[in-house]
Amino acid sequence: MSIDPAELLRSHGVQVTAQRLAVLRAVSGSPHCTADEVAEEVRSEIGAISRQAVYDALTILAQKGLIRRIQPAGSPARYEDRVGDNHHHMICRTCGKTVDVDCATGEIPCLTASDNAGFVVDEAEVIYWGTCPACRGAAEND
Q1: Does residue 110 fall inside a structural domain?
Q2: CB proximity list for 10: less than 8 A, separation 6 or greater
Q3: Which of 10, 21, 65, 117 is deepest in the core (most CB within 10 A)?
C-alpha cells in the first residue's frame, strides 16, 4: 500500500480507528483472504477484536471502495485491496488458491452481455475454476 492507510481512510470519509487500520493492512497483506483470516491477522497485530468488529470494518471498507468483496460459489467471501479495475479471478478447485486475472478485453466492463435487458452494465464478475500447477503436480506424483 503506497499511500498512508490512515490518510486513505480519511480521504474516503471513513473514521480512522485502530481496528479499521489493522483490517485494511490485513487485507492488503493477504489478498483474497476470508473474514476469519483477517480476524486472525488483526488479533496477532492489535490483540482482541470481536468477529463482529471485523465484519463491520470489512463492510464499511468495501462500501467505501477501499477493498473489494468477492464470493465464489460454495466459498466464503474473500477480500482484496485491488479495486477499480474490474479484474477477475482464477480459483483452484483443489486447494482454493485464488489469483487475479486481468480483464478479457482490457476494458470495463470486460464482457458485453448478449442481451442487457435494458441495464447499463458497469461491471462484469468472472471466476475461472481449475487446478493450480502445485495441485496438478501433486496429483501427478500420487
Answers
A1: yes
A2: 16
A3: 21
